[in-house]
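Pair request: fold both.
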Amino acid sequence: MEVRHVFQHPDILKKGHARKRGRRRKNVRRSTTDEETVRDQLKTKRALLFEEFLKNPSKTQLTIEIRLIDDRIGELTRRLTVRSEVRAGLAFGSGLPSLSF
């Protein structure tokens, strides 16, 4: 069995490898923008459903839909917060103050 160093891997030695990595970064930015758009759309839909529920409180199905939308908004907000912290270098304790003796 032949052992290769990671930099000797044929896929890494290809000319277009760096370009593929650049595309990936653009896709991450795009997915963040997409998630922000989806979150904003969900907030709008939630507001409309809540207004309808206030007018007709007997429509209890609306409360379930609102709850599901709230959960989805919370998950998207958490993801976006984690991504922004990672970009800022605050994730994994690097943003904590250092202790000196």
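--- second member of the pair ---
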Amino acid sequence: MLSAGNKINELQRKIAIAKKELSSIKLLEEPKPEFIHTTNMIRSNEYLAKQIEKQKTLLSLYDEYSKNLENLVLSASSIRIQIKKLKSHKKSGKTKKKIKTRRKKPKRKIKRNTRTKRRKRNKRRK
């Protein structure tokens, strides 16, 4: 699974490079006014051939990328199915149910400080 992720990252990097090269070819394709018309046509044909080559490369990279993504999704879904099977198997294996018992709360002892009570009474009287 880890190698599939690495392969996808590598393909993404190659796709970005191919896109960059394709855009640079389009920039170089513009005709130059100092050349004769036929020379510009020949240059244009050469650039179109390079552009078609890069587009083919880009398409093959996208094809490989989409296949790897499909494999990744399929493996993830098969893992999810296996987890569900394990959970259902684990649940069916239990025969005893746990019964919850309530614990009694411990009684709190109330400490009565007689000295403070006496002081309060004395303060009230005064």
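Observation on the second member. The two ends are 84 Å apart (CA to CA).
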